[in-house]
Write a structure and sequence with these properties.
This protein is α/β, with parallel strands linked by helices and 360 residues long. 46% of the residues lie in helices and 16% in strands. The strands form 2 sheets. An 8-stranded parallel β-barrel has the order 1-2-3-4-7-8-9-11, surrounded by 8 helices. Strands 5-6 form a two-stranded antiparallel ribbon. GO terms for molecular function: monooxygenase activity; oxidoreductase activity, acting on paired donors, with incorporation or reduction of molecular oxygen.
Length: 360
């Protein structure tokens, strides 16, 4: 199994200390968090996209570019790029630039997003989100794969003989499809023969398993080899301690604080409290043995090769503690237990560096 750390850059008062970071402090926290993830052996770091309080993640390509400058190995993900509201020309340009500046470490996770506040900001209705996503993605693929593109559609002005610059550094920038609530996203991924990333955050396992199963069924329908269907999945919030009782006690204030926010309420999570989520949901809170057992249980249901976790909301010292515990007690066990075909090769720039002859 491979491992990604991600952040939505949520900036709310700390549930234990009451401290609120300034925007600048939060940005610096994210840069340090990403560098620590690389140091500890995580495979990828992701930044989500949101357009409203309490999130500061309105510009993932800018943040990921800053992370690229401070790291050298870790892959850079968008978790997710809200393509349903974005101009594909701008996306093609911004992320091709990031692809170059990161030396080919970029991978996009696209989706329609789960915060309805962004629709009026960008001029579409919530009812149009799926049609908009499909059209914009079809155009984005053409812009990255073709030159002299002529195109006409509903959600932006026509293009005549356009070649976006720069061209991507990678031969083909990998794209995952974020999956949270609808078979329309899994259908789009299966049609294009591309991997999915299940959010696996707010609801019981059965809801997300049904979407993953649909993806695999439609994958075969479109004639793809079943063994090539790749799934990633979130794991919700993380909190490890020597005992499960200690982890629950320490994490409870953070859990309650986050689930009282309006952005959390929008997701209509059915869990009545932290204990219910631990027993019946995706949150990873407990001893290392408990968390490993839970991840293995979800893997049996999903067959996922990549797991993403978040330590958003914790104090900076607790973020470090949790990531160090996860890297020491969880990652080695799951790398051995669960094989992965994902990210087994070095990024293109790393390969070139190793082959390059030094100039003397």
């Amino acid at each position: 199994m491979k491992f990604a750390l991600f952040s939505l850059m949520m900036n709310i008062p700390n549930a234990v200390t009451g401290e609120t970071l300034t925007d600048q402090q939060k940005f610096q926290n994210i840069l340090k968090q990403a560098a620590l993830a690389e140091e500890l052996g995580f495979d990828a770091y992701g930044v989500g996209e949101r357009h409203g309080e309490p999130f500061l993640s309105s510009s993932p390509p800018v943040v990921l570019t800053a992370i690229a400058a401070r790291t050298s190995r870790i892959r850079l993900l968008t978790t997710v790029t809200v393509l349903s509201v974005l101009d594909p020309v701008r996306v093609a340009e911004d992320y091709a630039t990031l692809d170059h500046l990161s030396g080919g470490r970029l991978e996009l996770i696209i989706g329609k997003g789960n915060d309805p506040r962004h629709y009026p900001l960008f001029g579409i209705t919530e009812e149009e989100q799926w049609d908009s996503l499909a059209e914009r993605y079809a155009l984005l693929k053409r812009l990255w794969n073709e030159e002299n593109v002529t195109w006409q559609g509903k959600y932006r002005t026509p293009l005549d003989n356009v070649t976006t610059q720069p061209r991507p550094f990678q031969k083909s920038i990998p794209v995952w499809h974020g999956s949270a609530s609808s078979t329309l996203s899994t259908e789009l991924a299966a049609k294009y023969g591309e991997p999915i990333f299940s959010s696996n955050t707010f609801h019981p396992q059965a809801k997300y398993k049904a979407l993953i199963d649909h993806y695999r069924e439609r994958w075969e329908f479109y004639g793809h080899d079943p063994k090539n269907a790749v799934v990633g999945a979130g794991g919700g919030s993380l909190y490890l301690a020597d005992t499960s009782e200690e982890a629950v006690r320490r994490f409870r204030p953070y859990y309650n604080k986050f689930h009282s926010t309006e952005s959390s309420k929008h997701n209509k999570s059915p869990f009545k409290d932290l204990e219910d989520n631990i027993a019946n949901g995706p949150v990873l809170v407990g001893s290392a043995d408990h968390v490993i057992e839970k991840i293995l249980n979800y893997h049996q249901a999903y067959g996922h090769q990549v797991l993403s976790i978040s330590v958003d909301g914790l104090t900076e010292s607790e973020q470090r503690e949790q990531l160090e515990r996860f890297a020491k007690d969880i990652i080695p066990v799951l790398r051995k237990e669960i094989p992965s075909t994902v990210w087994n090769n070095e990024p293109p720039a790393k390969q070139q560096d190793e082959l390059a002859v030094p100039v003397r």
